[in-house]
Amino acid sequence: MPDTTAPSPARLVVQQPDAARSFWQPVPANGFVRCLLDQASTGAETPFAFGTQTVDPGCHVREHLHDQNEEIIFVVAGEGEAHIEGAVHPMRPNACFFFPRNRAHSFHNTGQGPLTFVWCIMPGGLETFFARIGRPRVEGEAPPPPFPRPENVRQIEAETLFGTLPAR
């Protein structure tokens, strides 16, 4: 059992939104992510990554699952739907979702404005995926025109934290 009286090796981190690593996201999500905290930036003993994602109106985060990770989603703003293994659940401010490993899910912005949610994944890896498929973003800059996912997106998914969806 760890010595809980010893000082933690983790660092206190205060992250302001304009200082966070941020990436524009390709179609079909569009929008952007902010990667606020992770094990590398905090020295945390427990591997994790934490940030936000904003999905443009009419866009979606495609169906996926994480075979080695657990994920928490907390909706901050906007309206949408979470499609989870054939069931549809409203995404509205203060809705919260916990996804155990291997639970297929997708997020759809059905509202008129942006859909923004907080994500936390344990262990981390989502921040690496977002950086590899996205384009660097500076707070306040105009969004780029929609751009495609990289041609090797399946390889990037396999190298980061995505599992294989069951055949249908």
UniProtKB/TrEMBL annotation:
Coiled coil regions in record: none
Pfam annotation, one family: Cupin_2
GO molecular function: metal ion binding
Alphabetical UniProt keywords: Metal-binding
Highest taxon in the source lineage: Bacteria
Chain ranges of the Cupin type-2 domain: 52-119
PANTHER family named in the record: CUPIN TYPE-2 DOMAIN-CONTAINING PROTEIN (PTHR35848:SF6), OXALATE-BINDING PROTEIN (PTHR35848)
Name used for this protein in its record: Cupin domain-containing protein
